Recover the amino acids of this structure.
């Protein structure tokens, strides 16, 4: 702004100087000098207009850059909020299961041992996840006991092996992980060991459910 004022003062100074010069020339040369002054004034005016246009152009570039900066900041904020939403959803999926007392924990440990006692810790944890997924689902009872002892749902209850298992440390670790919210089950609600399943039961799994993945001898469905 200060530089612009200096340039305007210079233009005015040039015009005044040219005007005063008329009085110093003889009358015979005044007409020619007037033409020079007019041409000079026109050039000075054109130069001033050019400077003003350049100033406005630079101002427009500055404003455009500011708008772009604000747009970039808004995009960064939107990305940050999107990441927060994804993280919240992830935490919700992997939330810690509350309200599971010692009795429910023991039931969960025994059914996991009976169903997956020969599997890896992850394989056992996935079985525990299935039970807990059912507790959360409206399709099943809302307690561990209710889910595990629902008629016809878990073969160890039907054949009695549930009552005779000895819970291992690996199973306790897997159940603790599941109760603490570690869940990579992808929402599975069913699992089966195909080699130990009745063909008609296996056919029902394949026909009516969506297969998600396998871990060890178990296949998981939803």
């Amino acid at each position: 702004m200060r530089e612009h004022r200096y340039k305007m003062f210079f233009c005015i100074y040039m015009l005044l100087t040219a005007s005063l010069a008329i009085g110093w020339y003889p009358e015979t040369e005044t007409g020619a000098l007037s033409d020079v002054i007019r041409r000079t004034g026109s050039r000075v005016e054109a130069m001033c207009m050019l400077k003003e246009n350049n100033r406005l152009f630079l101002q427009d570039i500055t404003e455009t850059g500011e708008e772009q900066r604000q747009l970039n900041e808004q995009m960064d904020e939107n990305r940050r909020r999107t990441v927060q939403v994804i993280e919240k959803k992830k935490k919700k999926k992997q939330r810690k299961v509350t309200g599971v007392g010692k009795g429910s924990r023991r039931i969960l440990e025994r059914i996991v041992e009976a169903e997956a006692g020969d599997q890896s810790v992850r394989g056992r944890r996935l079985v525990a996840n299935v039970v807990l997924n059912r507790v959360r689902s409206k399709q099943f009872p809302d307690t561990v006991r209710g889910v595990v002892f629902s008629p016809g749902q878990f073969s160890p209850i039907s054949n009695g092996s549930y009552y005779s298992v000895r819970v291992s440390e690996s199973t306790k670790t897997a159940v603790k992980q599941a109760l603490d919210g570690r869940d990579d089950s992808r929402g599975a609600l069913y699992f089966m060991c195909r080699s130990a399943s009745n063909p008609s039961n296996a056919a029902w799994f394949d026909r009516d459910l969506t297969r998600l993945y396998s871990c060890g001898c178990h296949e998981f469905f939803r």
